[in-house]
Amino acid sequence: MNRIARPSPGLVPGLVLFALTLACSRADEVVWARTGGPAPTATAAADAPDILVVLIDTLRPDHLSCYGYARETSPFLDRWAEDAALYEAAYTHGTHTRIAVASLFSGTLPTVHRVRRVDLASPESFEEGKTDGFATSLESWAESLLAAGYETWGLSSNPNVSDDFGFTQGFTRFWQTNSRDGVHMLETFLSAWKEREAARPDRPLFAYVHFMDPHNPYEPPEPFDEAFEVPHGERVYKNGPLEVSADDLAFTMSQYDGEILYLDGLLQRLLSTWEAEGTRERATVVLSDHGDEFQEHGGMGHGMTVYEELARTLLLAKGPGVESGRYEAPVAHVDVHRLVLDWAGAVSPEVARGRPWEAWGDGAALLYTESRPGDVALRSGSRTLVFPRDDFSAARYYERAHDPREQAALTDAAGLAELRRVLEAMVGGDAATAERLGTPARKLPADASVEELRALGYLGD
Ligand SMILES: [Zn+2]
Q1: 359: containing domain
Q2: pLDDT the model gives residue 1
Q3: How does pLDDT run across 294-316, given as a tens digit for each residue?
């Protein structure tokens, strides 16, 4: 098979148009929609901005050219980031979508929202204080914004972020699409938003748009599958340990990168229209929920470990009070929750842990991350503590100052004791908070969602 070299920047817009034409002909559709959800319960300030949060599933920042990647995967985003705030060290609270988004939507760590791996065939596991989705006892991001006078829209192409798992709580309108190709969701959003703008709404809008394009199985539409030159190889995808040949790994990464280049074209349409055609002031966040592994710790995919390749995320922000530039101070996703509420003039829920934007450089980010099987990472200074949530005796840590890929485990007692003190200070009170919130409501997905999740490799064998 002939593989073309990566396109020059001048070729990219043509490629995007070609691919969008192809993609629009696919049989993608909105499979679930809500149009008459809860209404705002207050009047927002006259100058409250419209807010757009774009979440890109599974996008690791070191595969974006604006984060230093050698391949030119993100020509549009690179330009857009020039007058945004770009965070070099943004971290998720979960390396699996539902854990991560539950933190983003609630401003709490997994120790409070308790989205845990639940055996769908074993309902007793729900009785152990776990939920497999967003707990009704939590105030959602959308609910906080409703209370500040915002209309709230959500769009998702990930079956994890759906009504089945409680993530539509507080949204006035919500659209679920059945495709990992984001173009249909993009069209749905732009069409509804332009209609809303034409009606000159007197309320501001909060919109959450969740793309799935770089998520495995890494199948970019033509010609993006040949955008980057690679050796012959097989496409490989799995969430978990897997040995992969060098050629298969290179080929698979070329397809992942092709997905990112394709997505960059979708972002160009979304953000250019959003910024050019609205009437209110605009505030925008672009982030990812977690990264993806390409053999750094002997596996592929995401959700199963808590290391850098999964825990570090893209984070760009533009809006009132946010100064553009590149920031190295670590920030956590609960901080993003707070940033959006502050833009809206909304009240942060009492259990939420985010810091106001002015404090993001204070070195006190809550860098706590969980995996689906229950591994925890705590990042403190240049160290990363990793342990199974229920067994601290297996804890080890990594010194990222000279081991940035977290390869050489350290286990000396003094180092572990110090990190344990940091951990206690960070989450020691969370069990009581979780108890006070009560047992999470049980969430069980519909059969169709279970099949979709199985196809994405989430349910195991
Ligand atoms: Zn995800």
Answers
A1: 9-373+429-455
A2: 28
A3: 999 999 999 999 999 999 999 99
Q: How far is the CA of 261 from the centre of ligand 1 (A)?
A: 18
Q: Is residue 167 part of a domain?
A: yes
* CATH number, position 263: 3.40.720.10
Domain assignment of residue 280, yes or no: yes
| Residue 406 belongs to some domain of the structure | no
* Residues 134, 102: Cα–Cα separation, whole Å: 6
Q: How far is the CA of 299 from the centre of ligand 1 (A)?
A: 17
Residue type, 188: T
Distance 336 CA to ligand 1 centre (A): 17
**Measured in angstroms, how far is the CA atom of residue 57 from the centroid of ligand 1?**
4
- In-domain check, residue 315: yes
- Residue showing tokens 């798992």: 165
CA of 3 to the centre of ligand 1 (A): 29
pLDDT tens track for 219-255: 999 999 999 988 789 999 888 999 999 999 999 999 9
pTM for this entry: 0.91
Number of domains, the chain: 1
CA–centroid distance, residue 4 to ligand 1 (Å): 30
Q: Which two tokens stand for residue 85?
A: 């705030």
The per-residue pLDDT for range 437-446, each reduced to its tens digit, is 886 665 556 6
